[in-house]
Design brief:
CATH architecture: 3-Layer(aba) Sandwich
CATH class: Alpha Beta
Distance between the termini: 11 Å
CATH superfamily: P-loop containing nucleotide triphosphate hydrolases
Shape: globular
Strand order of the largest sheet: 1-3-4-2-5-6-7
Strand content: 15-25%
Bound molecules: guanosine-5'-triphosphate, magnesium ion
Largest sheet: 7 strands, mixed
Radius of gyration: 16 Å
């Protein structure tokens, strides 16, 4: 089984062309800025600071890779919707990101994280369209569930389910809390399946 405890930082890559060879399996973590991408990677890998310490917060847009073993990697992609990034840098990054999502053969699946308190922002919807067109598997993580009451969680989940149905996108939904470690084991099991096929 994929050994999440063994995860280590591989490197940060501002450009698609700098990435290590397109081999093995990669699973990407995508989502709005501040939604909890790094926290989710830390929770998955039983670490406090693996993702945060290795990525430059804020302005640098790059693909950060972690590996469980050389053939099983997680990629932490820069959050979208971060206001302080210049237009030029956003355009450059947009191209690199599209290239990564569309061309990277070892990219088998994606984890899109949304804030369960306000899921499906305009940018989330755009990203869902893009991810759907790649034809790859998707897990939709609804993070920060610890901030919502039970009834609100049910409502948020239903809204997302309805939207996915409309899109005809058969993604798996996982309610999550990186803070309370909710959904972590379920997500590990899903990722392990992709890593092993
Ligand atoms: N309450 C709560 N807060 C969370 C949870 N997950 C993350 N946070 C908080 O949200 C903030 C952003 O978390 P990060 O993991 O840095 O988010 P990110 O998506 O990696 O952010 P960028 O890399 O800047 O795009 C931090 O203050 C976290 O402590 C959660 O499940 N519950
Ligand atoms: Mg981060």
């Amino acid at each position: 089984m994929a050994n999440f405890k063994q995860a280590r930082f591989v490197g940060s890559f501002p450009q698609y062309s700098q990435l290590p060879p397109d081999e093995g399996t990669e699973i990407a973590v995508v989502g709005r800025s501040n939604v909890g991408k790094s926290s989710l990677i830390n929770a998955l890998t039983h670490r406090k600071n693996l993702a945060k310490s290795s990525s430059t917060p804020g302005k640098t847009r790059e693909i950060v890779l972690f590996e469980l073993d050389p053939a099983q990697r997680l990629s932490d992609l820069p959050g979208y919707g971060y206001a302080k990034v210049s237009q030029t840098e956003q355009r450059r990054w947009g191209k690199e990101l599209m290239r990564y999502l569309q061309e990277r053969q070892c990219l088998k699946a994606m984890v899109l994280i949304m804030d369960m308190r306000h899921p499906l922002t305009d940018l989330d919807r755009q990203m869902l369209q893009i991810l759907r067109e790649t034809g790859k598997a998707l897990v939709l993580v609804l993070n920060k569930s610890d901030k919502l009451k039970q009834g609100e969680q049910v409502k948020a989940r239903r809204t997302v389910e309805d939207f996915l149905k409309e899109l005809k996108f058969p993604a798996i939904i996982v309610p999550f809390s990186a803070e309370k470690k909710r959904g972590v084991e379920e997500l590990r099991e899903l990722l392990a399946q992709w890593f092993e096929h």
